[in-house]
Amino acid sequence: MMKKPAVLVLLIIFMAACSSRQIIDQYHGSTAQRLTSHSVNNMIANIPEKDFSCLEGKKVYLSCYFLNNIEPLAYAQKRLELELMDKYQCLPVPEPSEAEIRLHVFFTSLGTDRDEFGLHTPELVIPGLGGFSQIDVISLEMFHGITELYYYIVDDKDRIVAKSDMMKTVVRNDSLSLPVITIPVNTVD
């Protein structure tokens, strides 16, 4: 039979189990930048040829939209423009009136998020570490780059030639945290 202090410790540990989510709005650090750019690159590399083959050799006006003007939006737009030029030999034009085809891309997610799920001690003051700290008993730390979008392709007669369902790409950088060691589960390649 367990003694009361052991039961109390186990109860505290199980009560400290949590899941948290943090949206990262800044692109500080190489990992956040790589997660974001790799998710954009993977998305653009997998655009469906059946929809985009109509751009072959055409004058194309590209518009990318997001809720606000963040740094990754300019990257995603330029990356898509260059991919279309390379793969479909289309010519980007600066004005919609000059285009034979208009491509409207709506990003619904373009960035990183961080999730943590697991068991850890309550926050404690541990001498020498300064401030509050917690010890992971076992937790999974997930840092993801996510690109999500849909698009419309419109011809020069204002007809929708193609439209997509929601497309999503996730690039992961996960690790398993134990009391003394953190083990990478997967990393950004």
SSE layout and pairing:
Layout (H helix, E strand, L loop, with lengths): L3 H12 L2 E7 L5 H16 L3 H4 L6 E7 L5 H18 L2 E2 L8 E20 L3 E2 L6 E2 L2 E20 L4 E4 L3 E11 L4 E5 L3
Parallel strand pairs: 2-3, 2-4
Antiparallel strand pairs: 1-4, 4-7, 5-6, 7-8, 7-9, 9-10
Helix pairs in contact: 2-4
Number of strands: 10
Helix content: 25-40%
- The fourth-level CATH homologous superfamily of one domain is THUMP superfamily
Radius of gyration: 23 Å
CATH class of one domain: Alpha Beta
CATH topology of one domain: THUMP fold
Mean pLDDT: 86
Helix count equals 4
Order of helices and strands: HEHHEHEEEEEEEE
Gap between N and C termini, in Å? 49 Å
Which blocks of ≥5 consecutive residues have pLDDT under 50? 13-25
General shape? elongated
Q: State the secondary-structure class.
A: alpha+beta
Beta percentage is: 35-45%
Supply the CATH architecture of one domain: 2-Layer Sandwich
| Major sheet characteristics | 8 strands, mixed
Can you offer a commentary on this structure?
Helices cover 26% and strands 42% of the residues. The protein is of the alpha+beta class. It has a domain at 20-114 and 145-170: 2-Layer Sandwich (THUMP fold), CATH 3.30.2300. The strands form 2 sheets. Strands 1, 2, 3, 4, 7, 8, 9 and 10 form an 8-stranded mixed beta sheet that branches. Strand 5 (124-125) and strand 6 form a beta hairpin. Helix 2 (30-45) runs parallel beside helix 4 (71-88). The longest helix has 18 residues, at 71-88. The chain starts with a helix and ends with a strand.
